[in-house]
Amino acid sequence: MISTVRPLWSPLAAGTALGAVLLFTFLLTGHGLGASGFFTRLTAWLGSEFVRPATEANGYLGPFLKAGAPLSDWISWEIIGMLLGALLAAITSGRFRLRLDGATNLSGGGRLAFALGGGLLTGFGARLARGCTSGIGLSGGATLAVAAFVFLIGFFIAGIAVSFLIRRAWT
Amino acid sequence: MSLPLYDDGIASGLLCGLLFGYVLENAGFASPRKLTAQFRLSDWSVFKVMFTAIIVAAIGLYGATEAGLLQTSGIFIPTTFFWATLTGGALVGAGMAIGGYCPGTSMVGLATGRLDAVVFMIGMVLGTGFFAGAFDQLKDFYLAAEGPPAQTLSGLTGIPTWTVLAALLLIAIAGFALGARLERALGGPLTAEELNANNAKAEVEEIEIVTIRTS
After folding, report:
1. What is the Cα–Cα distance from A8 to A95, expressed in whole angstroms?
2. Which pick of A170, B22, B60, B204 has the fewest CB atoms within 10 Å?
3. pLDDT at B69 (0 to 100)
4. Residue of A nearest to B141 (CA)
């Protein structure tokens, strides 16, 4: 069966559009785009719902609760907008399909284990770096921050090395 | 008018997010196969899109500052904590190589119907929880080798911003050229068709294409 999906934008076109969106965000808000900050706030909120005393006492998550509702922040609305924007793009281009994607050569269980393990490292790493690919790499990069390039060097070197070690899972 | 407007309202968040998600999906960054193919060096879209976006936004910020429209001191510039920034970046890279996403692209993956992206997000919450749980022990490492606040490449090297931008442009052009060579040698970037096909089927097609090319 030949599916009718629209082609992707060229990397140059997508990169130029992304740069314009990022510039617009800076001029509008004074900061760039982010993502992992939402997951920090989500974790703080989940902690406050299920293990409140421990979360309040925690040196890292506690301050998010003291400041009020942890999810009440610009980044939560940005994340909701992201979901809607990506959904709009996927539906209008025929690229929306429910599926279990992931490490191509693994069974369903293996793919889920890789997704969970990869997410765990990413969640931990983003807190250590004070941001993720969007918040530090991309947005920090646009301000020519030294931190962005230190982050991106670590990101690409470790990514290529780990990818080589587990290449049989993905290709 | 003085910029930035410091609008952190609901409409601002929704609009910026909507545009961000729309562009990332159209770049193909909902697909963990496409994202990880960057690390296998067979698809350079992540490098190309990120570097182009950084340069376009950086030139825009520089232009707005030079034109007197924007206060550079008014925008957020992250501070380096060398070991934490480097190790954190490495862990995010390793996590993407294994799990197929970064935090933002997992949202885009979910929006295109990818259920593994949800599992990746659960992993991120767990990872954030582990970090918080170990925070007291990690604190020295987290705060080690702190750089000057909001230091930029110009601040570090003493080179003017326009020269830094020109150097980044040259690096991007070299990266595009290297990427194009490696893409040709390693099978080429993944298309929307390939990404939307059943994984197993896509594999067979790829193998057939490679066989045809090499025979």
Report:
1. 10
2. B204
3. 94
4. A128
- How buried is A161 (Cβ within 10 angstroms: 0-12 exposed, 13-18 middle, 19+ buried)? middle
pLDDT digits (tens, 9 = 90+) for B162-187: 999 999 999 999 999 999 999 999 98
Q: Which of A21, A84, A153 to mutate to test the interface with B (most CBs of B within 10 A)?
A: A21
pLDDT tens digits for A73-121? Answer: 999 999 999 999 999 999 999 999 999 999 999 999 999 999 999 999 9
Alpha-carbon Rg for chain A in angstroms: 19
Distance (Å, whole) CA A164 – CA B39: 8
Does B119 share its domain with B68? no
| Count of the separate structural domains present in chain B | 2
Predicted confidence band of residue B73 (pLDDT cuts 50, 70, 90): confident
Statement to judge: residues B88 and B191 lie in one domain: no
* Alpha-carbon distance B212 to nearest alpha carbon in chain A (angstroms): 19
Q: What is the pLDDT of residues A8-52, one digit of tens each?
A: 999 999 999 999 999 999 999 999 999 999 999 999 999 999 999
pTM of the model: 0.94
The yes/no answer to whether this complex scores an ipTM above 0.90 is yes
Check CB contact under 8 Å for A147 and B33. no
Q: Domain span at residue B113?
A: 78-148
Specify whether B71 is located in the same domain as B123: no
Q: Is B70 helix (H, G, I), strand (E, B) or coil?
A: strand
- The yes-or-no verdict on residue A3 having pLDDT over 70 is no
Do residues A123 and A38 touch, judged by C-beta distance below 8 A? no
Q: Assess whether the previous peptide bond of B103 is cis (omega < 30° from 0).
A: no
Listed residues B94, B114, B148: the one ending a domain = B148
> Which residue in chain A is spatially nearest to B156 when comparing CA positions?
A146
Q: How far is CA A68 from CA A59, A61, A111, B18, in A?
A: 16, 12, 37, 26
- Interface A–B counts its CB contacts (< 8 A) at 541
pLDDT of residue B48: 98
Same domain, B197 and B93: no
